[in-house]
Structures are given as structure tokens and as C-alpha cells.
Automatic annotation (TrEMBL):
It is found in: Cell membrane; Membrane. Residues 107-244 form the Cytochrome oxidase subunit II copper A binding domain. This is Cytochrome c oxidase subunit 2. Subunits I and II form the functional core of the enzyme complex. Electrons originating in cytochrome c are transferred via heme a and Cu(A) to the binuclear center formed by heme a3 and Cu(B). The lineage of its organism: Bacteria, Pseudomonadati, Pseudomonadota, Gammaproteobacteria, Vibrionales. One of its GO terms (cellular component) is plasma membrane. Binds a copper A center. One of its GO terms (biological process) is ATP synthesis coupled electron transport. Its main location: membrane. Its EC number is 7.1.1.9. It catalyses: 4 Fe(II)-[cytochrome c] + O2 + 8 H(+)(in) = 4 Fe(III)-[cytochrome c] + 2 H2O + 4 H(+)(out). The gene is coxB. It comes from Vibrio chaetopteri. Residues 268-349 form the Cytochrome c domain.
Length: 377
């Protein structure tokens, strides 16, 4: 009977109040399991409350009922222990089956490493040399309520994770800083990403589409601003995307190399820097450079961005500050972008140093760092 109910849910399928079926075999298993357990709970509730209300009504005081006076009925105690145990075991069997299937990452066809960090995702495709960051793309104006909120408010990113359908995809998940959790409800995948650990999960998507999720672990101030967008497409389209992405990455690399020889004007650096600052730094140091006292230092008027040496300033961004939320941006931004954002910080909000930092400065800082310099000898 239970299976009949599950396969033809009374009101479940189309209700906006229920779980959705999702788009993977596992998410369907989870859905069926949820319905099965739900109906078992309903049946238990009907029996328990039925007996209770029947007893209250039948043996009410106005009918002259007199309470029986007994205790320690071994028979009753055995029965009320054994029945729930049997019910629990019956429920554990399908639940364990689904859990085991969720954990089985064997025979996967694609492996993608997912790294969480405050507050963005990084995706790396194994064996493909393709990797990129994925950041929320909702504008600050929408968040501030100055602009009308879009259809995918807080659930949109600049670079979605792109995957093919009908392929078993294994995810290796880890984190650069605190615990995050990669959660896409339509796949029934939700796994913590833990610094120093690698967790595994997998999915195999049945239908092309765009699926959205969020970080599901309270990971700091902008926890609500690191959404996940997955674009699932047919294998052919995926292949085209992958080739395009590789070309795009090669182009960016060539561009970055070219930037090392270029001397950019301060205007150009400031424009680029302002954009980088708004999208990558303002979440902590604030758009006005004032930071948040006690959590994120101000850049406006700070020694590091005014009278301090440029190398110290560069080191903060290239190396980060170990043990704090100030992460290393060495692999997140190109040398040109780092140079631009430093130039911006040294000239915005009254930090009128007039200093100009070029990509080559960043590059020479990095190389200096890589080989212990003669200074140290
Ligand atoms: C996740 C939050 C976060 C983000 C994003 C972030 N920072 Fe920081 N930043 C910090 C924290 C926290 C510190 C203080 C570290 C410490 O204790 O020394 C800091 C320190 C700094 C300092 C040194 C300040 C001082 O007075 O010593 C500079 C410069 C800086 N950040 C620049 C940047 C730039 C440029 C970006 C963007 C590319 C950026 N930060 C993005 C959190 C952040
Ligand atoms: Cu997070």
C-alpha cells in the first residue's frame, strides 16, 4: 500500500509546499523516501491520536468512567517497545539504501574539484586544465534596494559551473578558509567543504537546465552571497563550451603576459581597480574604504595604503594575512588586476598618494618572493 501511495501521491507532486523531485535519480529516490516516511508518520499519527481521542471520548467522566489502577504491565511495555523498533527498522532499510547510493562515487566519468572560500566558489575540471572562480553577480544597487531586484536576486553568478547531462560527475570538495557547504537541491547534493579535508559527492543530471543553490553553512558575513549556479547541457554543447573556455583561458594568459610589458596610465588603472575593488574587496573593506571596525580594517587613511611602502601593500594582497579573512589573491586576480586595485586603494577616498603600480611590479614582487633574494644573504 505504501508504494501505491508513493507512486501516486495524494497532493504531493504539484504542491509548492512539498519537496520537489529534482532532476537526478538520487533526488527522485530522496523524494520517494521522504514521501514514504511521511506517510508512515501520518499512519502512526492517525493510530495514536485515534486511540487517544477515542479513549477520551468513550471513557469520559460524565459517563461515569472510573480510571483503572495498575502499573508495571510487562506485556504492554514489551509491546510498546517492540512495535516502534520494528517500524524503525522498516524505515531504516530504504533510507540506508538511498544513503549508500548517494555515497557511491565509483565509476564517475568527470571529476570536478570544488573549493569554497569567503565568499565564492572555485571549480577545477580534472584533466582538462580548466578552472575558474564563480562569484555572485547581483549588483550592490539591487541589494541596497536602489534598483529593482532581478528574477534571480542573490542566486546568480558570473561564471556558472557547466556540466554535461547523463554523465556521472564526481565532486571533490574542500575549502580554503572556513567550512562552507555546496548545496544544489535539484540534485539532492549537499556536502560540507572543510579546510584540510576532501569530501566526495556525485551527481548525474537527467535534464538540461539551469539549477541554482547556495552555500548551506554559516560561513561569515557574506554567507548569503555565495550562490551556486549549475548549467547542465547536452554533451555536444558541453564540448563546445569546454573548447571555448580553454581558448578563453589561453587568451587571458596571453593577455596577462602582455600586461607585464605594458605601462598603463593612472586613469586606466583606477578604472580597472575600482571595478575589482567593488567586486572583490568591498564586501569586507566596504565601498567607502572604511572597513568594519573590529572585523575588517579601513583602507581609507590607512598607513598601508598611504605612507607605507608599496611592497608591504602588495604583500597584503599577493600573500594575504595568514589566519585572517584576508586571503591571498595571487591566484584569483591577474598581476594587472592586483596592480590596478592597489593603485586604486592608494588614490581613492582621500588616499591621494599619486602612486602608480604596474603589473610588472606585482610580477617582480612575486619572483623576488619565489627565489630567496640576495637581501636575505
Ligand atoms: C573576506 C574579507 C576580505 C576581503 C574579501 C578582502 N580583505 Fe583585505 N583584509 C581583510 C582582513 C580581515 C584584514 C586584516 C588582516 C590582519 O589582521 O592583518 C585585511 C587587510 C587588508 C590590508 C591591510 C590593511 C592594514 O591596514 O594592514 C589591505 C591593503 C587589504 N586587506 C586589501 C584588500 C584588497 C585589495 C582586497 C580585494 C582584492 C581585499 N583586501 C579583500 C579582509 C578581507
Ligand atoms: Cu559559505
Amino acid at each position: 500500500m505504501a508504494t501505491a501511495l508513493v507512486s501516486q501521491p495524494l497532493f504531493a507532486e504539484s504542491s509548492q509546499y512539498n519537496l520537489t523531485r529534482g532532476v537526478t535519480d538520487i533526488s527522485n529516490q530522496v523524494y520517494d523516501l521522504h514521501m514514504l516516511i511521511f506517510y508512515i508518520c501520518c499512519a502512526i499519527a492517525a493510530v495514536v491520536f485515534g486511540v487517544m481521542f477515542y479513549s477520551i471520548f468513550k471513557h469520559r467522566k460524565s459517563k461515569g468512567a472510573v480510571a483503572a489502577n495498575f502499573h508495571e504491565s510487562t506485556k504492554v511495555e514489551v509491546v510498546w517497545t517492540v512495535i516502534p523498533v520494528i517500524i524503525l527498522i522498516l524505515m531504516a532499510i530504504p533510507a540506508t539504501k538511498t544513503l549508500v547510493a548517494m555515497e557511491d562515487t565509483s565509476q564517475s566519468e568527470i571529476t570536478i574539484k570544488i573549493t569554497g572560500s569567503q565568499w565564492k566558489w572555485h571549480y577545477a575540471y580534472f584533466g582538462e586544465d580548466v578552472e575558474f572562480f564563480s562569484l555572485m553577480s547581483t549588483s550592490q544597487q539591487q541589494i541596497d534596494g536602489v534598483e529593482e531586484k532581478g528574477a534571480h536576486y542573490l542566486l546568480e553568478v558570473d561564471n556558472p559551473l557547466v556540466v554535461p547531462i547523463n554523465k556521472k560527475i564526481r565532486f571533490l570538495m574542500t575549502s580554503d578558509d572556513v567550512i562552507h557547504s555546496w548545496w544544489v537541491p535539484a540534485f539532492a547534493v549537499k556536502k560540507d567543504t572543510i579546510p584540510g579535508f576532501i569530501n566526495e559527492a556525485w551527481t548525474k543530471i537527467d535534464e538540461p537546465g539551469v539549477y541554482r543553490g547556495q552555500c548551506a553553512e554559516l560561513c561569515g558575513k557574506a554567507h548569503g552571497f555565495m550562490p551556486i549556479v549549475v548549467q547542465a547541457m547536452a554533451q555536444d554543447d558541453y564540448d563546445v563550451w569546454l573548447t571555448g573556455k580553454k581558448e578563453e583561458m589561453a587568451l587571458a594568459k596571453a593577455e596577462a603576459a602582455k600586461a607585464l610589458d605594458a605601462t598603463l596610465s593612472i586613469e586606466e588603472l583606477l578604472t580597472t581597480g575600482e571595478g575589482i575593488y567593488a567586486s572583490r574587496c568591498a564586501v569586507c573593506h566596504q565601498a567607502n574604504g572604511q572597513g568594519l571596525p573590529g572585523a575588517f580594517p579601513a583602507i581609507a587613511g590607512a598607513e598601508v595604503a598611504t605612507s607605507g611602502s608599496i611592497d608591504t601593500h602588495i604583500s597584503k594582497i599577493v600573500d594575504g594575512v595568514a589566519g585572517t579573512a584576508m586571503q591571498s589573491f595571487a591566484n584569483q586576480l591577474t598581476d594587472k588586476e592586483i596592480a590596478a586595485v592597489i593603485t586604486y586603494q592608494r588614490n581613492a577616498w582621500g588616499n591621494n598618494t599619486g602612486d602608480v603600480v604596474q603589473a610588472s611590479d606585482i610580477n617582480s614582487y612575486k619572483t623576488q618572493e619565489a627565489e630567496p633574494s640576495s637581501k636575505e644573504l
